[in-house]
Amino acid sequence: xxxxxxxxxxxxxxxxxxxxxxxxxxxTVSAGEIVGLLGPNxxxxxxxxxxxxxxxxxxxxxxxxxxxxxxAFRAEISExxxxxxxxxxxxPNLTIRQNLRVFSLxxxxxxxxxRVEELLAEFELTEFADxxxxxxxxxxxxxxxxxxxxxxxxxxxxxxxxxASLDPSIALYIREKIRNFVKNTNTAxxxxxxxxxxxEEVCDRVLFLSHGKILLSGNPRLLPSANGKKDLEELxxxxxxxxxxxxx
Length: 248
Known about the structure:
This protein is 35% helix and 26% strand.
């Protein structure tokens, strides 16, 4: 692992019976870098994220986070790691403020009340602070989820389709918040999305997954032309279909 590498995945494999969902993948994510993990449904993206989070145990391979084995040092690593996804709902019967308060305590945040109020203001949630999460709009819930995801100022942030199903205005807001957070904190980010325009805009590097394998990696603004495609969306379709040669 290099000095700047925050996440180092080596020869990672996850099998479900005869299905190899993640097939011997290796990659790194460095401090201050936003890496897109792309691929069609069933490609292995969420499985990879869940292994990094420690929710799933790999069949083989190694995950190092902050230079330490992710399985052996899970508790220590979790203090500097966080996650957001549109499908990972927060407790609906708790208010926005209560949700943030609970997570501030779980992460052992110094002066949790102050941190919660800072996040309410930063994400323009103060006026809804006493509203139950289950009553929020999708945009409000996304802002709450992102506030929760950065509550501990993580050094590694995992984002699984954080803007899925959001209207363009809210999606832009979320992207800008994440970019600013990375710029100010030098956090490493692994980001999955099906929105290729978004990926071109926010990611420094992308990894294309198909059937659990990494087929391509590189700069999202340069990869399409390098592989004979007009844009990232066309390249995504080509990778998903796994042609013999992407330049054909």
